[in-house]
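Propose amino acids for all 268 sites.
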């Protein structure tokens, strides 16, 4: 199987684990017996989740708080994980955020922060741990992209661009790492009811987007880990999201962009 089996000396490092998809992925991996290292900025939430996972699944759950948009903080995270005596054989690059609005109107510093966390941090942690996995000849990496990665999105231009970076990086390195015994999967969820929507400033989306387009955290986490087990290159949970991803990839930009922009304006 592409996902390494649990062991006393290894763990899954999960970023952005304090809520939403990150917490769901931590639960799914713990249910399969993997020790976990949970990382995010909110320590109390991480400790509550760690206690839950240890109690329910009997696994080792460690907490390392970090603001992963900072290179110094990523260095500290890596050192802290090494100090736990655990090999990272599963890496979940989940930390990230979105911001909705026209790029020229959004705060410049906020958009740069988004690029650092959504792109730079993903590449940094992937590079750190994929090299170790390749040397051992086993490992699994899950990078969180989005259905936004499949086409440019007026109204969330910077966010979609960061996820396009993650998807492109993931698909290429999936091929590079395959002969080393390491699998890399890009997870591309569509709308999921988590704190992400509120933080991104798109809270009205829950009322305007029909129910069939939404996917639960539990379904996303389950399909993601099953995809890792099968060594899949891309996982897009939900039939409608998979259909939309195909359309986003293949529709001519000259046709798709005006339609996307019209729909966005109508929804405002």
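Proposal:
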């Amino acid at each position: 199987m592409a996902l390494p089996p649990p062991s006393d000396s290894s763990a899954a490092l999960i970023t952005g684990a304090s809520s939403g998809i990150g917490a769901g992925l931590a639960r799914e991996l713990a249910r399969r017996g993997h020790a976990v290292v949970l990382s995010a900025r909110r320590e109390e939430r991480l400790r509550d989740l760690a206690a839950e996972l240890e109690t329910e699944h009997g696994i080792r759950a460690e907490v390392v708080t970090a603001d992963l948009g900072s290179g110094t903080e990523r260095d500290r995270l890596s050192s802290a994980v090494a100090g736990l005596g655990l090999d990272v054989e599963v890496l979940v690059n989940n930390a990230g955020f979105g911001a909705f609005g026209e790029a020229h109107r959004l705060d410049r510093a906020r958009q740069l922060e988004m690029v650092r966390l959504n792109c730079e941090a993903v590449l940094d942690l992937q590079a750190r741990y994929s090299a170790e996995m390749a040397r051992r000849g086993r490992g699994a990496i899950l990078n969180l992209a989005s259905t936004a990665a499949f086409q440019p999105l007026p109204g969330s231009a910077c966010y979609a661009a960061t996820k396009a970076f993650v998807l492109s990086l993931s698909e290429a390195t999936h091929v590079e790492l395959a002969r080393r015994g390491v699998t890399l999967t890009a997870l591309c969820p569509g709308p999921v009811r988590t704190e992400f929507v509120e933080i991104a400033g798109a809270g009205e989306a829950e009322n305007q987007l029909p129910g069939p387009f939404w996917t639960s955290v539990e379904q996303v986490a389950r399909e993601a880990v099953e995809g890792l087990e099968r060594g899949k290159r891309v996982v897009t949970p939900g039939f409608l999201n998979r259909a939309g991803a195909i359309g986003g990839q293949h529709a001519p930009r000259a046709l798709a962009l005006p339609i996307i922009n019209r729909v966005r304006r109508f929804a405002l």
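The chain has a mean pLDDT of 88. Residues 146 and 188 are 4 Å apart (CA to CA).
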